[in-house]
Design brief:
heterotrimer, A mainly alpha (115), B mainly alpha (97), C mainly alpha (132), B: 97 residues, 64% helix, 0% strand, flat, C: 132 residues, mainly alpha
Chain lengths: 115, 97, 132
């Protein structure tokens, strides 16, 4: 149960970084931390005590199916990592546009400028 | 009634709800038999020929999900290239959009 | 940049490339697969962009033939995955011995195609962001 709490702690730190920091780049880093916490939680759900990796290596198949950990969440997390990369890349390019237009990267001062 | 204090109190309330939701899950390490995962583990060698179960799930049993993800990656690369683009200045491109 | 950094990164680049090709080709035996190999090789390219200026790297790697590979790699992956939907598995690479390099049906080709796709996307993003 303490392992799930640590994953939720990572999500909470990410939410704190998105809501309470002023610099725009720190907010984008908070989005990435939220995704990392969720991936950790998903992989640790499919764990089996005293289990092995899901690669067949000099074992027979029936005992292999009773000893291996769950391979399905690992496949979904692989897809989710690539999608997180795409979102971060587009967000960083928009930050470059904001800097060209406003001249500053401070979230509380951009509200006052209104260019 | 500053905004920062209201934000901190709401963050504590959200964290309390998260801890309550996680406490209802089963024990850590008690993954029982499920239908689909057992089928993938047993029949991965004779259907596809690869000993790695995760590799055969990503590229063979669920190949269309990987196709969609590659489309997302391709569109993100196109989008970055389009958003960062300097306007060319000169007499030829004067009446450009 | 310094002379030491330039020489060291130029020496290290083929070994990073070799490690990426190894991880991509052994995707059906050991953990790894297409996406990890793409990330490793893209990091090798990022090392070269840090040491030299970005214009030098692009001028060195962009001859007339190499530019077309960037546009065509996504098309290769599309054709491979759609033709896989017609249950066309290679009889040559079917299970002779499990855990051998010559096994795995269609998956080694798909691993290499996926790695190519990830390399081109990440290198394009790095060029566009560094050129500001």
């Amino acid at each position: 149960m303490i392992e799930y709490l640590i994953a939720m702690l990572a999500v909470l730190l990410g939410i704190y970084a998105v809501a309470f920091k002023d610099n725009l780049i720190k907010k984008v880093l908070g989005l990435s931390i939220i995704s990392n916490g969720i991936h950790l939680f998903l992989i640790s759900i499919g764990y089996r005590t005293n289990g092995g990796i899901p690669i067949l290596k000099d074992m027979d198949i029936t005992s292999f199916a009773q000893l291996a950990v769950d391979p399905l969440p690992q496949a979904f997390v692989l897809t989710s990592i690539v999608i997180n990369l795409s979102v971060t890349a587009v967000a960083l390019s928009m930050i470059i546009l904001v800097y060209r237009h406003f001249g500053t990267l401070d979230a509380s001062r951009i509200r006052e400028l209104r260019g | 009634m500053e905004t920062r204090y209201v934000g901190l109190v709401s963050l504590v309330v959200i964290s309390a709800f998260m801890m309550l939701a996680v406490a209802e899950l089963p024990e850590f390490g008690s993954f029982q038999k499920k239908d689909i995962a057992t089928y993938y583990l047993e029949n991965s060698l004779e259907d596809t020929g690869s000993a790695n179960a995760v590799n055969s799930i990503v590229w063979d049993y669920r190949g269309y999900d990987t196709l969609g993800e590659e489309t997302v990656l391709f569109c993100a690369a196109l989008g970055v290239f389009t958003i960062i683009r300097r306007r060319f200045s000169g007499p030829h491109h004067k009446d450009d959009l | 940049m310094d002379l030491i950094i330039k020489t060291t990164s130029r020496i290290l680049f083929p070994f990073v490339l070799l490690m990426g090709i190894y991880v991509a080709l052994h995707g059906h035996i050991s953990p790894g697969g297409g996406f990890s190999a793409g990330a490793i090789i893209a990091t090798g390219f990022a090392l070269l962009v840090i040491a030299y200026t970005e214009g030098d790297v692009e001028h060195r790697f962009t001859k007339e033939e190499l530019v077309d590979i960037k546009a065509v790699s996504g098309l290769i992956l599309l054709i491979l995955i759609i033709s896989m939907g017609f249950a066309w598995r290679l009889e040559l690479l079917k299970t002779q011995f499990p855990l051998a390099l010559w096994s795995g049906g269609f998956t080694p080709l798909l691993n290499v195609a996926g790695a190519l796709m990830v390399i081109t996307a990440i290198v394009t993003i790095i060029y566009a962001l560094v050129k500001e």
